[in-house]
Amino acid sequence: MVGRSGGGMAGGVGDTQQVSQSTEHLGPIPRAARIVNENLMAERRYPDLDTIVSQGQSSDYDLTQGAAWAPFKKVNTHHIPDAIFEQYNQAQCHTMMGLFTEIGYAWMTVDNRLYMWEYATGNGFQGYEAQPNTITAARLLKPRPDVFNEKINYVLMIGTSVEVILLGISAIPNNRNAHDIAIYDTKMSINTKGLDISVIEGSKNGRIFFGGRSDNEIYEFTYKGQEGWFSGRCAKICHTSQGITSFTPKIAFSFLAGAKDTEYLVDMVVDDSRSLLYTLSSKSNIRAFHMSQDNVLVPRITYSWPQIRSSVGVLVGESRLIQPNSTIVAISPMPVEVGRRTHLIATTSTGCRLFMSAASSDYVYETASSMQVVHIRFPPLPTNAHNLREIPINQSPALTPTRRARIIPPGYFFCIVESQDRDGDSLFISAPDTAKLALLADQGHSRLQLCENSSFLNLESRAEAIEVVCPPPLFGNEASVQFDTPPAEFAILTNTGVQIIKRRRLVEIFSAAIRYGAHGPDAEVRKFFDTYGRAEGCFTALAVACGIDAEAPENRGGRITDQEVCDLARKFYIDFGGKPRAESSYDGANVTTLDNVRLSGRHEGLALYVSRVVRSIWREPIIKENKTPGGITTHKSIISTAALEAVQEQLQRLAKFLLDNKSFIEGLSAPTSMSVVQNRLEELALVAEHKGMHSLQQLTAGIIEGISFVLVLFEHPIDEIIMGLTEEHRAYVKKITYEELFTSSTGLELAKELVQGIVNKSIASGGDVDSITTALRRRCGSFCSADDVIVFKAIEHMKKARDETDPELRMTLLRESLRLFEETASSLSMDNLRETVSEFIHCGFYQGAVLLPLTVAKATENGTDPSMYRKDGAPENAPQAEVNKKKKMCYQLIFEALDRVDDAARWELEAQGGQPSFQTQLRVDTWDLVYRSDDEQFQNELYDWLCSRGQGHKLLEINSPFVLDYLRRKAAENLGHAELLWQWYAKREDYFSAAQVLYRLVRGDFDLTLEQRLEYLSRARGFCSSQAPAGTRQRMTDLSHSIQEELDVAVIQDELVKRIKDDVRISDSKKEALIVGINKQLIGLTELYNNYAEKYEYMDICLAIFQSADYRGPLEIRKCWETLIMQTHERADEDGRLPWEAVSEIVRRLGHRFSLSEYIFPPTELVPLLETYALTKQRNIGPRSWVIESLLDADVPHDVLLRILDDMFQRNEEPFQGNTRKTLILDAVWVADKWYSESLKGRSYAGGRAAMGAGFKPEGVVQILEEYLKSGVDLGPETEMVERLVSDIRRKFII
């Protein structure tokens, strides 16, 4: 929502926090808190002096004539007591007068005597007559630290005609708004004969400077607590002369020169914020010195009167107010908090103010070497002039002649104008109109000009001094601090008494304008609104309507007795507040946000009222921690009780006003006028107005109760209450601010903990819950709700149970305590829950320790979807994230209780020798209660907890629908949960699902070893072999086939790993890398072949890969066999083995492995390869028939072997040509004989093949053998064997 926007440059220390976020969805309290913070930030952005006073000239004054609008008011006149006048009449040569407003005293010197008195009461006379010389100057200053004892909080510097004396002053505040003082002789004085001391000045760190009418030198009075070896306790240093003359007495030669030729010191001021000392001489020359360190004063600038006049001429041209015969009568420093560029303001004898800058371009004051006038402010035009237009603004004689002047930061101007008719001096006072300047800055004026409220007062006597009684706010809009800062007051000392001048604030002016304004209340108030804006006008009207009138005697305001004024202020607040308005540039159909609405002046005024009332406490910590000398920690309130009560009382007035006028203030009640709105924009504006007003009303009520809570808190033993908090809360209580207490959930949580501490302390002191909670609810009900009362009663039952010895009664109390806690489950804090669960466990009430957190967790959901925690992974910014966080904390408490009940059962079981016990049954009942919970999130958290403790096997025994859903979800990302899932299925004989889980597990991304994958695949294949449920047989068969394929691949990988481990050709590091790569996951057959088997020439594995891939390329398969045979031969030869035996063994082994794959173990290729190998590599080595025996052992059928051998014989190819063909004939005869022998035995099994003997083909065999006999190959002795075999076959089979 659009509120008061800041303008101009940021000045002073302000908030840097940005509050640009939307307020659309904020609740009432956060919305109001943001409004307060925005207002506080806006008022801190008040433009600084450098922004207001630009280079050039000005003379804009609001010179009021009527009493109603007067910015200042004479509130009191304190006459000089007769006793002082009696001493004055006894003066012989010299008297002086002045004020010590710091302690509420006025003073007068009579020759060598100094008298002081309380100017407000005329009492408290003090005198100092202990020295004989005429007093020429006196000044009350702050002492150096650690020089005097703590009783002396001021020092009084007295200058006389021959010495300066330092006295100690003890000033203790009394109930008369003054001080009881005591004067102490410090025994410190130095000789100043001939200096004619007239000016004394001091810095805040206790340095003292002085000078006189005899010269223009600057002296420093140095002092310390103890004397040194070569120095006394005090001394004098001249900072503007060198050599011995700076330490010796001064001889005055001024009488030898004319009065006009002697330049002497007139004024001296200190700017502590920049560590600068300025001096003014009788010739209006200004010097600046840097106070760099103790006893060092570095001259930086000398700015002469001719130079000053030249700078003024450049700015404004010729002015008769700045002439050679004009003088500077006073200089006033401006601290850095007021303006970084403006350092000094000089006032001339014609009433002109010269704003000077003494800093370098980078604002380094220590190195500044020049000074210049940057702005001149001329006096106002005379009030008695007949034609004001004839007088130029730079020629006004209204403040001529100015005899005294003083400018008090941030810009209060006091000018004593000497009367020409001797009727007494006239006092001109002006001050920045800060509220008007703030309005102009808010409105975005690019070039601000100083505008001041001013007025003339007739003092009717001669003014002697101008001092501050109560300082104005150093910087910023004075209207923003009028609730918590007393009005600025000043004391003007004249020769007849002390006149007290007070700055009137806007609430006083507004009230006075209504009472006796010259043009009637309506016109006067309209003028006020036009001058200061709608927001300030509504605020002021609201303040007056609520009874705030700062002209009452009380510092913080009092009640208006004139009811008519209050009623008129109420009327102006309501009528002049305007209406809320959405920007017309928006299309009413498209406006969807309330932040685009400019709220009414009533809302702005209410927001200002609340913000300004709480400003002094809003950001302040509540509690301050102190350490006693004995090391004991104590706590106290930073804000006084009186200040808190004052803020509360002002807010209570506001709350009553809003309640009484609820039906009259549009937007405060529900927007009942919705029926008459013209469009969507008006409707939106009314909604925004209502939300804003309602939020501020809610915040006001909350602050009132919050302050009541703080007051109640400090009425109890706060140290003991804080010590009873948790460590986290103890740390927070030391830094929590009032803003956090009023507006944040953490502040409310801490307050409830403190309330509980108050209740516990009261119960411990013998009180009862009802009485203390009734008192708390009466004073601060929101901090002690009905739920809190129930909690306190539950705690009371729980504490009684702890002390009860009767088991049944104890359990009754515990159950009642549980019932009460469950009633307040939605509002029970985690600390209370944690302590309660701990107490239940201590009492052995484990079921209560489980049930209460479950109930609180359920109540915490508060309408959120509990399943969302797992659907979206519970992101941190999700709406239910905080809910889930608290629920998990509740579950953790349950787990702690389960741990304790398990431990108790185990200990008792061990103590009773393994016999079941009461604790064992209690454990069973408690776990059963846990398993029966219908809180799905809890069950999932429970399962996680069990698995994290290595107790996941317990999930296999739980028959809950949540278990299966949990394991299914977790199995996708956790190996342990996946193993539990297939075990869960297997335990319930759902073997198909178990096999599916294992199959997915093997194919997943889990970090499994190859051995584990083989195990899982084997288990899965076994599950697929089990009886299938109805309707799943085909699916199980398909799954079994897929599993077998993966298993074949896994077997190949496993074999590959073993071969790599035994391969001496590969280095150990390379082996490790290869094995890791193979073990990581199941690898595709192509990758296995290319990257491993073929690369490292593992030909038997290559053949296995061909088989698994169903690859039938004859050339590649033959090549593999050729390579394999030669590798086997070479390795056997290297190892000293018989090569033919090695080849025979591998043929047998692979024959059995690939017996079902004719394309992987092709006899048509292998028989020629082996016969050729035997002939060329193993000729006449080994048994003649080893090749044929090997192939028969490899399950190659007799008929196949015989046919292949016969084909080889018939082809007559190399190397079987000529006589070498005999080898083929003999092998064929051997096969035929073997086949025939098997058939004669009547066996139906040969070489592992069923019914092979029954397939003997005698005709074919005989034909082949007879062809060999006729072939002409010389068989030698074997011819007879062949003929006999043929004869036997013919005879046996009757051919």
UniProtKB/TrEMBL annotation:
Gene Ontology annotations of biological process type: protein import into nucleus; protein localization to nuclear inner membrane; RNA export from nucleus; transcription-dependent tethering of RNA polymerase II gene DNA at nuclear periphery
GO molecular function, one term: structural constituent of nuclear pore
Domain Nucleoporin Nup133/Nup155-like N-terminal: start-end pairs: 69-498
Subcellular location: Nucleus
One Pfam family per UniProt: Nucleoporin_N
Nucleoporin Nup133/Nup155-like C-terminal domain mapped to chain residues: 600-1241
Keywords: Nucleus, Transport
Domain of life of the source: Eukaryota
Positions of region (Disordered): 1-26
Compositionally biased region (Polar residues): 15-24
GO cellular component, one term: nuclear pore inner ring
Sequence ranges of Gly residues compositional bias: 1-14
UniProt family annotation: Belongs to the non-repetitive/WGA-negative nucleoporin family.
Name used for this protein in its record: Nucleoporin-domain-containing protein
Originating organism: Terfezia boudieri ATCC MYA-4762
